[in-house]
């Protein structure tokens, strides 16, 4: 059962209505996460802004999706795993092996593997990485700009993971469970 109500877009007004209209114009739908975030228009606007800006960053959309999958798996967020598996498969055209590898923080590409490993290290260490962690990602030719964006992606995805885990948002994508949940 959900803990925070997903708003009906037809019943919203003000800033929430404005944000919902923008999301609907872009996506053709307002996903339940955004309908739920709409209870706090400042949160929804902040999420949309950071997500939009990072999507235009140096790491690009494909790496952003891979990061979202790795981070969602680390934070046991079935909503985000479901959403990003759908987006990765249907919009970014990732194959199932790439998606599974990303959830484990792995990739056949050395640079991408270093990016995902660093992101999972950030999550696991609560952001308290050390010199060796940063040196490891830099050794894979990841630039300071890219490292900075990785931190941004981790922050964005922790926001959505924690929000959806708190709200127990109803999943409106084909459902994907974390590996730990699937094993039980």
Tell me what you see in this structure.
The structure is a single chain. This protein has 184 residues and is an all-alpha fold. The chain folds into two domains: 9-55, no CATH class; 60-183, AhpD-like (Up-down Bundle). It has helices at residues 14-27, 32-37, 41-55, 60-74, 78-90, 96-103, 110-124, 131-138, 144-167, 179-183. α4 (60-74) packs antiparallel against α5 (78-90), α4 (60-74) packs across α6 (96-103) and α7 (110-124) packs antiparallel against α8. The chain is globular. The model has no long low-confidence stretch (mean pLDDT 97).
SSE layout and pairing:
Blueprint (H helix, E strand, L loop, with lengths): L13 H14 L4 H6 L3 H15 L4 H15 L3 H13 L5 H8 L6 H15 L6 H8 L5 H24 L11 H5 L1
Helix pairs in contact: 3-9, 4-5, 4-6, 4-7, 4-9, 7-8, 7-9
Quickly describe the structure.
With 184 residues, this protein is mainly alpha-helical. The chain has ten helices and no strands. This is Peroxidase.
């Amino acid at each position: 059962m959900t803990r925070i109500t997903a708003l009906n877009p037809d019943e919203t007004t003000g800033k929430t209505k404005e944000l919902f209209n923008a999301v609907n114009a872009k996506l053709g739908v307002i996903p339940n996460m955004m309908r739920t975030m709409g209870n706090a228009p400042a949160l929804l606007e902040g999420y949309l802004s950071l997500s939009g800006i990072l999507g235009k960053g140096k790491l690009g959309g494909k790496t952003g999706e891979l990061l979202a999958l790795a981070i969602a798996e680390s934070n046991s967020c079935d909503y985000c795993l479901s959403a990003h598996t759908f987006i990765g498969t249907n919009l970014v055209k990732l194959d199932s092996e790439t998606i599974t590898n990303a959830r484990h923080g792995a990739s056949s590409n050395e640079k991408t593997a270093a990016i995902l490993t660093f992101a999972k290290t950030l999550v696991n260490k609560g952001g308290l990485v050390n010199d060796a962690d940063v040196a490891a990602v830099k050794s894979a030719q990841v630039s300071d700009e890219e490292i900075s964006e990785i931190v941004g992606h981790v922050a964005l995805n922790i926001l959505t993971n924690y929000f959806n885990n708190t709200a127990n948002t109803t999943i409106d994508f084909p459902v994907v469970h974390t590996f730990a949940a699937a094993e039980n």
